[in-house]
Amino acid sequence: MAPRLPRPHRDDVRIALAGLIGGLLVWGVGLGTRTAGDALVLLDGRWPILLPLVVTACCELLRRVRPRTGLLIGTAALTVDVVTQGNLATVVMFTDLVYAAVLYGPPATARRVPWITGLLSVAAAIVPLAVWRVPQALLVGVVVGIVAFTPAATGLIVRNHRDAADSARLRAEQTALLAELDRTQAVTSERARMARELHDMVANHLSAIAIHSTAALSIDDPGTSQRALGVIRENSVAGLAEMRRLIGILRDSGGDLEPAAAPTLDGLGALVDGARVNGLDVTLDTDTGSRADADAVRAALPAPVELAAYRIVQESLTNALKHASPGRVTVTLARLDGSLSVAVRSPYDDHGSPRAPGSGAGLVGMRERVALLGGTFSAGPVDAHWTVRATLPLTEGEDA
Predict the structure, then answer these.
(1) What is the secondary structure of 240-286 as a DSSP string?
(2) What is the pLDDT of residue 257?
(3) How far apart are CA 213 and CA 228, in angstroms?
(4) Whether residue 196 has pLDDT greater than 50
């Protein structure tokens, strides 16, 4: 089945009707581009003029859907019009066909038609001048240039401007798309960061509350219950303070989304003491590789590294509080070869049940923190201990 020709554009139908009606009016009043005695007129009489007029008007219907076909048929119709008394409307519609072929045709047509019409204009000026040897012969080239080359050049200029506008619009759309992607990524990244902060700040306190409230309910000992309630109150107050600080960060419109008093390694002692209060047997060891010196480990550490190290230790102690078997938990920090190493070891028994439920978000958050700093992270059982290891590279110039 042969493909059906696309429907012509509404504007092309209007152009074709206007050209046909205008040509019929010119033909009706007896105006022609040549007289009956002209040497070029081979088809004398008024009726032959209508054939190229009607054909050219029909070609106008193809100016967008089949521009090259319309130009080829229109060229043949103009050739017939030349050997009749002629109609000005036929010539005008042909110039529009040349313009449309360059503007709406394929890129190859848009490149070739101006060159072809330009060469024809030059040839139409040189050949008659060489044959007739009169200056008036140059007018033939001028007429061909007006009828063929001028509309072709105009169509090329308009096409170039249209293509430039399309390219600019495409670049603007791509820029807007990239900006939207950047905004979405920024929002996603910020949501992930705030989720890590919320989890790290509150999970430790809530886990302690859950464990000690369970102990207070299950052990019928007033002294034990009193101590458990004291721990619950301390963790409730601390958790509430952390929540208020986080809410203050979220409400801050000044653009500083990082906590105003972000925890540092100076707070590890208090963190470990709190873990001991919650029931963990914890030891803290800082080592530079040559001597135990906490000040040397903390010296000139970048703020993001300090925050990540603190949160890793905090989350590891929280996990130990919920999952570790009875025994000692060790926290070790070492600064070697331009990086800070953090290791937390706690007794591990895969047959035991957790003292408080967990979601696994803590390990995900620790891994994300380390990945953002370009470090390495591992967590898993090693020699009957659950071991969390993180290596955090220091930025250039921070490490002596």
Answers:
(1) HHHHHHHHHHHH--SS--S-TT---GGGHHHHHHHHHHTT-EEEEEE
(2) 46
(3) 7
(4) yes
CA nearest to 120, candidates 104, 141, 139: 141
What was the pLDDT predicted at 10? 94
Query: Averaged over 387-392, what is the pLDDT?
Result: 93
pLDDT score of 270: 83
DSSP 342: E
Look up the CATH superfamily of 264-400: Histidine kinase-like ATPase, C-terminal domain (3.30.565.10)
Q: Give CA angle at 341 (298, 273), nearest 5°.
A: 60
Nearest-angstrom CA–CA distance, 54 and 56:
5
Instruction: Give residue limits of the domains in the chain.
Output: 10-175, 264-400
Amino acid at 114: P
Q: Can you say whether the dihedral through the CA atoms of 196, 198, 200, 201 is positive or negative?
A: positive
pLDDT greater at residue 239 or residue 145 = 145
Contact 87, 27 (CB under 8 A): yes
| Whole-number Cα distances in Å, 214 to 158, 203, 232, 349 | 81, 16, 11, 21
